[in-house]
Please model this.
Amino acid sequence: MKILANDGISASGVKALEAEGFEVILDKVQQDNLVDFINKEKVTGVLVRSATTVRQNVIDSCPSLKLIGRGGVGMDNIDVAYARDKGLTVINTPGASSQSVAELVMGHLFSVSRFLYASYKNMENEEFAKLKKSYAKGVELRGKTIGIIGFGRIGQSLASYALGAGMKVVAIDQYTETATIALNIGDKQLDIHITPTNDLSSVISELDYISLHVPKQADGSAVIQMKEFEMMKKGVRIVNAARGGVVNETDLKEAISKGIVAAAALDVFENEPNPDPSLTSHVQIACTPHIGAATVEAQDRIGTELADQIIKALIN
Ligand code: NAD
Model:
């Protein structure tokens, strides 16, 4: 059976699949040619990350297709319910990249607190003394309050890092069951219990930092827009490594120009892969190109988890 890993798969994933007799195709087939390629090669399983989409037309036009796999969490690029209705198996690897996203967010939190992103950009061309003055008013994370909106796998992983950095964590979620965050320090484990609130407006004005870890909302709406920005503490720093659009980009720029938001970091954008240049060039916005899950370790975990699930679904 042939598996097309259109957005790539780790060597460990390829090895596990090949050991069970699968042929893994690592070609990057352009979206427009996907149907023809799958039919020509009689592909049984197609694996994607966020770049390739598998919509109804692909599902309807490819009779050989039995399985669609998403390496990672959000499956908004796949018509999941439609595929399952048609008898296809749809799999993903929800937990494999939580830690990687959490670590990227910590990087952004430090970066927007100390102007690291701007400093990296400007050191080559700007006068040293001028930059030293511009970046003189950094702030520390320790002792500050972070609001984590969306307290699922990634939100809870971020909480462990934020607690480790000495931050106070306020969790906001639709589900308010208490979560136990395990802090591993050497060979000791410390369990911290956090109960989320489902009322963002009751805590929003206390937050020095905000990080979003919600899925793309079913109705496409933003979780943070002008109404929320207007309730925030002046000087708040905000990170979106969830999905483009969960923070309204136009309102974010306005909140920065009004002095509400001191700095923002974006790993995801409404118009990927062509983000609005007024965001990427903004002096108070740190941007990364959707690399939350892009660590060697996460890709390894994703590859082997996908392989395990494919073997279970198509062989066992
Ligand atoms: P998860 O399902 O474990 O957690 C999401 C949480 O958000 C849930 O607890 C849910 O109740 C909560 N939620 C949903 N809408 C909400 C709202 N309006 N207000 C408050 N809480 C809300 O998912 P996860 O594994 O933590 O991943 C979260 C998201 O991160 C994914 O859906 C994906 O969009 C994004 N992600 C981004 C990258 C990246 O590369 N930047 C990588 C992986 C995942």
